[in-house]
Amino acid sequence: MSSVHQPVPEPTLVFRQTHLSRLPVQLNVLLFASYAEALGAPSIALTLGEGASVADVLAAIRALAPGRGLPPALVAVNQEYASPEHLVAQGDEVAIIPPVAGG
Amino acid sequence: MTHVAIVEQAINVPALQARVAGPDMGAVSLFVGAVRDTNGGRAVSGIAYSAYGAMAIRELEAIAAEVELEFHGARVAVEHRVGELTIGEASVAVAVAHAHRAMAIDGCRQVIEELKRRVPIWKCEHYLDGTREWVHAGTGAAARVGTP
User: Fold this and answer.
1) What's the confidence (pLDDT) of residue B133?
2) Which of A55, A95, B33, B121 could form a disulfide with B92 if both were Cys (CB 3.0 to 4.6 A apart)?
3) What's the pLDDT band for A68 if we cut at 50, 70, 90?
């Protein structure tokens, strides 16, 4: 109803930013070759905690297909190879890169 | 002109050569990789290639730029095919032109070696006995790329 009082907005932008940074990181991880086959999909939605790294992404993906003998893999973030400690962020294009075999 | 592509149809090798040739290019070195009928003693019936297309293009562009810088004056064209290939079909072709043969040959070698090491392309080998297997050729080399 029109007589209901709205709550007072949050007083500062700083507070909102802090709050947002604690939201989990939601990713749509691209899968290829043996990984796509083992997980039965070309990509998979993943939700990780704040401060998640490339190593965390890979561990979470590998945990979805235990005992499948998946080969070690690298991870690309925004189409570039990323180091294990690189932090992932919402909106990143993240892909699992199994050992390549072009040629 | 520098040219890189991931293609789904047969690679046109003469067209690739024509892309790098020119009046100032005294040499064109060509490498063509083809599907072989055996691997590790097993009879191969065909290979299914797949790629992370957008990143594969980026890596190929980076490799071409590196080779054109290192072998000053070189011009690079490279195409890799994806999809189901049969024995003898070309999976990859590299053409490198330079004023002189040594640079063309060495540049061509570097393009294919770097492609095999770091471009996100995969192959699933199909064998005559009906089985199939993902080939993990780039394990060690690719791991080094990811460890700056």
Assistant:
1) 93
2) B33
3) confident
Q: What percent of chain A has pLDDT over 70?
A: 79
Which of residues A20 and B44 earns the better pLDDT score?
B44
CATH architecture, range A23-97:
Roll (3.10)
B92 neighbourhood in chain A, CB within 8 Å: 102-103
**Cβ within 8 Å of residue B44, ≥6 positions away:** B35, B36, B37, B38, B87, B125, B126, B127, B128
Contact criterion met (CB below 8 Å) for B78 and B111: yes
How is chain A split into domains, by residue range? 23-97
Residue pair B26/B100 in contact by the 8 Å Cβ criterion = yes
Interface of B with A (CB under 8 A): 33, 49-52, 54-56, 58, 80, 91-92, 112, 115-124, 134-139, 142-143, 145-148
Q: Which of B136, B144, B145, B147 to mutate to test the interface with A (most CBs of A within 10 A)?
A: B136
Which residues, numbered 5 to 34 in chain A, qualify as contacts with chain B under a Cβ-Cβ cut-off of 8 Å?
Answer: 30, 32-34
User: Is the pLDDT reported for residue B143 higher than 60?
Assistant: no
Range with the lowest mean pLDDT among A12-16, A53-57, B85-89? Answer: A12-16
Average model confidence (pLDDT) for chain B? 93
Inter-chain contact B118–A79, Cβ cutoff 8 Å?
no
* pLDDT given at position A12: 42
Range B3-136 classified under CATH 1.10.3720.10: no
